[in-house]
Amino acid sequence: MAGNSSAARSVTSRALDLLGAFDADHRSLSLSDLARRTEIPLATAHRLVAELQKWGALAREPDGSYVIGRRIWQLGLLAPVQSGLRQAASPFLHDLYGATLATVHLAVRDGLEVLYVDRLAGHVSVPVISKVGSRLPLHATGVGKALLAYAPEDVLVEALKRLTRITAYTVTQPARLLEQLRRVRAEGYATTGEEMSLGACSVAVPVRNGDQVVAALGIVVPDLRRQLPRMVSALQVAAHGIGRTLAGTPSVQWK
Amino acid sequence: MAGNSSAARSVTSRALDLLGAFDADHRSLSLSDLARRTEIPLATAHRLVAELQKWGALAREPDGSYVIGRRIWQLGLLAPVQSGLRQAASPFLHDLYGATLATVHLAVRDGLEVLYVDRLAGHVSVPVISKVGSRLPLHATGVGKALLAYAPEDVLVEALKRLTRITAYTVTQPARLLEQLRRVRAEGYATTGEEMSLGACSVAVPVRNGDQVVAALGIVVPDLRRQLPRMVSALQVAAHGIGRTLAGTPSVQWK
User: Fold this and answer.
1) Looking at beta carbons, which residues of chain A come within 8 Å of B120?
2) Strands B28-29, B66-68: parallel, antiparallel or unpaired by DSSP?
3) Which terminus of chain A is less hemmed in, N or C, by CB atoms within 10 Å?
């Protein structure tokens, strides 16, 4: 034990590690799961979990397991990615969904992945694997290509090293992807054809706040050929609207 | 200092208090704001904030202030209120929005308030004051009345003590509200007419998981008279769909 300051640091990071033990594949964890996943002794885990539960960061299910609490959900709604970007974009996404009935995506780049910030889909939309908060590779998604086309050089270099094959149609040759990204910049939109999921194609456009590309807006449809110009127009109108809303709200710094 | 266990409890609760200092009216706080709002000494606040930032629970803005970080947003997406109820309901909400273009609400009761779990609105929808994560009184909203009609006796008794007037049309007489709630149970839907905001009327229905009313689904429109039967049908179809989805997913325990 190296004095109070070190003990304090350790306790906070342990409490945070307990929260971090939850992910999309582990939404519900028993106390012993939590202790094991965080390598925290059971008695300590028990005490910290009780504090987290009391505050509302964790909630206990009828079966005795723990889940992320409503208070964390409410706090998360205050994060700028949600309260700034997602909220500014929301009416435009709904307009776009109302016009197309396609699955609509709003995404940002987080490192070398696409992070889905919002997603609208009804029962008539093409089934897709993305969820809000989920991540997918940049090179295999429409929103990812739209983001990668405007990403810094170092991000592009790293992304080109990881062109993993997901379907038979995924672009895995660096030269071919570079040519596609050049066309995204020239034409203002990105497309994919079954590169992430068979049966799903996508079109996406960048969302700008001033000069900066801060997000991408995309739709997923079974087939691009017939309606591409109409979809690109609808996406661009919505992306401009989001950009204007972001630029007009100086308190929004969502990155 | 009463030994390690007490120090630990104090540190965790201080870290949580720093997170809890953020709310809808305080989305961005300076270090000194944080220290003042939590009554934590500046040096301690500084150290804890640095740990929270390192983990991603807080993020630092270009102006030096702190905001809730993306990691808390992502964790919040795992909360059952989001991952269970909101996700199960999402396609039905979008169908309902596509059919009506009205503002669509999904809400749960949290104590004596309505907590808005999801909200869809396009640019043609009636402007409303609710936001996802915001709370409003039970007695003045359509979703609130739908929830109150099926609430336990003690909740009803407490709610009847707090019939605050919000507009000239808010129901503030206990006997009149009780009669309305009886009709909600008999007819299966609740309505409001400018009781929360002038110019906005609402219709709402309960969402059931088995026998339990677990949420309410509502739409906000400028005028109820012309389309009420059609709106009630659309809401009931969607509410049954959500209920079936919840009942069919045994891992979902979202309450």
Assistant:
1) 94, 120
2) antiparallel
3) N
Contact B67, B58 (CB under 8 A): yes
Which one, of B84, B50, B53, B90, lies nearest residue B70 by Cα?
A: B53
The shortest C-alpha distance from A81 to chain B (Å) reads 7
B83 chain-A contacts, CB cut-off 8 A: 27
Q: Is the pLDDT of residue A18 over 80?
A: yes
Tell me which residue has tokens 């009327």: B201
Note the ipTM here: 0.70
* A164-180 b/e (C-beta count within 10 Å ≥ 16 → b): eebeebbbeeeeebeeb
Q: Determine the residue of chain B that is closest to A27 in CA distance.
A: B78
Interface test with B, best of A29, A75, A132, A245 (most B CBs within 10 A): A75
Inter-chain touch A94–B122, beta carbons under 8 Å = yes
Interface mutation vs chain B, best among A9, A11, A252, most B CBs within 10 Å: A11
| DSSP 8-state code for residue A138 | G
| Range name among A141-145, B8-12, B204-208 with the lowest pLDDT average | B8-12
Q: Which residues of A touch B69 (CB under 8 A)?
A: 79
Q: Render pLDDT for B54-75 as a digit per residue (tens, 0 to 9).
A: 999 999 988 999 999 988 988 9
Residue B210, Ramachandran bin (φ over 0: left; ψ between -120 and 50: alpha; else beta): left
Model pLDDT, residue A252: 39
> Which of B79, B137, B233 has the alpha carbon at shortest distance from A70?
B79
Residue A122 has pLDDT above 60, yes or no: yes
User: Whose structure tokens read 């409890």?
Assistant: B9
pLDDT at residue B9 greater than cutoff 60? no
In the sheet that holds A212-221, the strands lie side by side as: A135-137, A113-120, A103-110, A212-221, A201-209, A190-193
Q: Which fold has domain B3-75?
A: Arc Repressor Mutant, subunit A (1.10.10)
Q: Nearest CA to A151 among A191, A160, A249?
A: A160
Per CB-CB distance under 8 Å, the chain A contacts of B80 are 27, 59, 67-68
pLDDT confidence bin for A227, thresholds 50/70/90: confident
A16 with B76: Cβ contact below 8 A: no
Does domain B80-247 fall under CATH 3.40.50.2300? My reply is no
Sequence ranges of the domains in chain A: 3-75, 80-247
Query: Residue B98: its pLDDT value, please?
Result: 83
Nearest to A253 among B62, B98, B115 (CB): B62
Nearest CA in chain A to B47: A9
d(CA B219, CA B100): 9
Subunit contact B78:A23, Cβ cutoff 8 A = yes
Instruction: Decide if B73 and A81 are in contact by the 8 Å CB cutoff.
Output: yes
Report the residue from B11, B75, B97 with minimal CB separation from A68. B75
The mean of the pLDDT values for chain A is 88
Which contiguous run of DSSP H or E holds residue A202? strand A201-209
